[in-house]
Amino acid sequence: MPTHPDMQYEKNALAEGHSRVCGIDEAGRGPLAGPVVAAAVILPPDFELPGLTDSKQLSARKRESLFEQLMQSPDVLKGIAQATVEEIERLNILRATHLAMARAAQSICPSPDFCLIDGLPVPGFPIDSRSIVKGDAHCLSIAAASVLAKVTRDRIMRELHEKFPQYGWDHNAGYGTAQHMRAIEKYGITPHHRRSFAPVAQATLPLEF
Asked: On the CB side of 156, how many CA atoms lie within 13 Å of its CA?
């Protein structure tokens, strides 16, 4: 049964004395290629956008529509950031994800003073925060962030697909689908592949640049 996120978490944080509460989510932890993207969103009080929910429950067309509405709303404050493949390799995917989240939150002006973060606790986050497991299904600002992060990353992967069409990134977004794995076996890996991820690390063919 579909869930309907609301703004209760945001209202609770405001009642505790915070003034600018943002929701944060990411897209792209699991793929074998491409950056990890995070978004942070501060919604105005009593914000409503019909159909807005966890991006994973939405069709690509619906996500795109909600993305445009969120981006065009002057009352919605948002920040979108990424951690590159190089940073993922240097830091590991978890720390790189946290870095992208911090960048997204800190890019909002004025900055949030409290963050609601999807998932498990984020140690050392630079802004006071609370983590919410499955927050994108329960917290409206996190749901909004999930849409912004997912659509942004999908667009990035479609752009990369233009240079490396054999991997099917326009539809697999860099995830390890059977077609993607066959392409790695046939063509090798690119600078956009995460070499530390096991399926990529096991590729034996020379690099394709």
From this structure: 22
Edge-to-edge order in the sheet of strand 114-118:
77-83, 36-42, 21-27, 114-118, 129-132
SS3 state at 99? helix
**Beta-bridge partner residues of 22:** 115
Residue (of 201, 195, 149, 141) closest to 173 by Cα position:
149
> How far are the Cα atoms of 16, 98, 105, 174, 176 from residue 85, in angstroms, in the given order?
38, 14, 20, 12, 16
**Torsion on CA atoms 61, 21, 5, 44, rounded to nearest 10:** -70
Domains recognised in the chain with CATH numbers: 8-159 (3.30.420.10)
Phi-psi category of residue 124: left, alpha or beta, with phi > 0 → left and psi -120 to 50 → alpha: left
* Euclidean distance between CA atoms 125 and 99, whole angstroms: 9
Q: Model's pTM, two decimal places?
A: 0.94
pLDDT in tens, the chain (209 residues): 346 899 999 999 999 999 999 999 999 999 999 999 999 999 999 899 999 999 999 999 999 999 999 999 999 999 999 999 999 999 999 999 999 999 999 999 999 999 999 999 999 999 999 999 999 999 999 999 999 999 999 999 999 999 999 999 999 999 999 999 999 999 999 999 999 998 888 774 454 43
